[in-house]
Amino acid sequence: MKAMKWGGVTLMYAFVILLAAGMTVPFVYMLATSLKTLPESMQYPPTWIPRLWVWDNYVQIWHQTELLLWLKNSFVVAIARVASQLVLGMLAAYAFAFLSFRGKQVVFIGMLMVLMIPHQVVIIPQFLLMKQLGWLDSYKALIVPQMVWPFAIFLFRQYFLTLPLELIEAAKMDGCNPLGTLLRIVIPNAKPVMMTMILVTFLSHWNDFMWPLIVTNSQERMVLPVGMANMVGEFSTNWPVLMTVATYATLPVIALFIGGQRYFIEGMTSSGLK
């Protein structure tokens, strides 16, 4: 029995290691390509280890492209979207979880039904609305339509429902209003789900391509994914330069995950209790 148990554990770890290695391969190849010369990056079969390590790619890229501007726009849009979805999502989730009002379940179900509508279906109406408001090629067009995400409300509500009702009732008995209860009781106990939400939404908005491509048409408002897409030529592409930009694009996400992985894991496993 012990041999079978250890054999099962060994197979599980072997499978996880192979899965992790498979997910790492694209990143390793991206780093290797970013350090190659252009002729070597076009060779077939491709080489994994560069013959000549061109570290200068990571310096010259700042002069060859508008990388700094793309990064600034992506940070502004992603942080604004994440902050608004975090604040508005928690406010709405608190109402759905702890407040009583007529038609609450109907409104909540209607909100969930929005998740079933593909984003591509509403792109044209949203674009026409942005055009009528005169917001095209502006931060408002990039941020305002994405300020509320029904999934964020759903996730926060489900987590809030795991909190003991005694905490909420005790706060009410002490004279705390709903906003004060949210700020002093609920949010301090919701750090794991908040970090989970920040990671998920930041990754989604950091990589957003379709909507910024539609509503912007100038370099001043171009975000990183659109800028990278413009680097792909019709007949040729400078792959080392493109992979260098892609490497820079992954660094903020990696840093955010490393800094918040403890809360992320806790948010996936905990019940909301200290």
TrEMBL record:
It is a multi-pass membrane protein. It comes from the Bacteria. The chain crosses the membrane at residues 12-32, 75-99, 106-129, 141-160, 181-203, 239-258. It holds the Pfam family BPD_transp_1. Keywords: Cell membrane, Membrane, Sugar transport, Transmembrane, Transmembrane helix, Transport. InterPro entries: MetI-like, MetI-like_sf. It is found in: Cell membrane. Residues 71-260 form the ABC transmembrane type-1 domain. Belongs to the binding-protein-dependent transport system permease family. This is Multiple sugar transport system permease protein. It comes from Paenibacillus eucommiae.
